Amino acid sequence: MARHLASGKVREIFSSGDDLVLVATDRISAYDVILP
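Above: the chain sequence. Below: its structure as tokens.
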């Protein structure tokens, strides 16, 4: 099971054993605000 490490404006970072998994989402960030 992957463990959640961090959330950014557009990406999520998970730890899966010895690997890091970066997930890019479809969230849009402009002027430091997440747009709906």
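Residues 3-35 form one domain.
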